[in-house]
Here is the input.
Amino acid sequence: MAFQELRLSLMTFPQEWDPGSGITLNVLILPTGDPTVPDPSLGGPAFSGGQRTFTAAFITSLSQLPTPNPPPGELKTFPLPTTAPSGAPALFASLAAQFHIVPPPTSTVPNIRIKKALPQSYIDAFAFEQSRTDDAIVGEGFGCALTGKNPNPTAPPPSKDISWGQVFSYALRNPELAVKLGILYRDLHVPLSLAQVAKGGWLYVSLDAADPYSGKLNTDVIKLYATRVPAVSTRRPVFAAVLFPVVASISNPQPYDDAQIEAQTYDDGFAQIVHCNQPATIDAAAGDGTQIVPGTDAGVQIGWDDEQVTIWNNRQLDNLRFRRNGGSAPPPSTGEAGVPSHEAAPELHLQNEACELFRPPHRAEVGHHPHRTSRHAAYARCCNPTRKP
Here is the structure.
């Protein structure tokens, strides 16, 4: 994929399967660049205020990764009627007037990583042996780095310049705004039958032939991302922690193996390893054990899937580097999974602007499994910016 040519990304986030009505889904569509002026690469009018016309596509097999040209008989298509976003042009103009919006950065991205210190409560929550990634650290390294910092650094004031990608990041934390801007379409229904989903499949949304941008489908200008739908029969939530690019062919599917495992693991929206801790000292962050009792109740710390979330964050940084520094992006797409650094990579899934695209958690609820939270838990929130509270 030549991410440098990307102008529009369409991402599909399933919400629920019901045998009587099929799958309910949300669609996220993100332009790059300035959405208030026509983009010659896309053709047609400016993105702002335009009503998109969609078609849903379902591939009735998981035997291969999603492709626009599956074997005969496996592709089922459905029209997806949408409502035009009311007042979108005026809303885009208002945002442009309110903020100092500049083009996204073009400088190269250094080889930095997000590191995560694994707390004792996480290690004790399951049969932990060693870290899955070098970016998840066991020991006192984080506490030492924190206490070794200058407590009063002199930093310049933050810049007031923001990109349209950051504006969209804000909008996704306020979904009603995202709907009115026309980047989020909610509660669309795909009437899949029990027979069609009996073996699972791939679901994605494309532009209808009537859409003015449809001429750029199947090019690097527009990218479509599919969700892995498990085999379902009874009513249940369906969750996309990871999205997969819809491409004609993939020469080496092996790098997608981990992403497919992640998609299966989280397709019900439950976190897997949830852990809690009530700090007993004032050094709750550093954890250096001074044994000085906090002056007030320090509250309860809740965490989940520390290693997996660290892997997803760094995967998004890798995507950003490929986009900015040149080359083709690495294959897995996180969704949270899954998510893009909108101005960076077309996967929506963690934020760079990357960690700006997910809605913040609203609540964490204890589910029926001792190590899992409900699909409305904070983890699920971070992985699906389009899911309702």
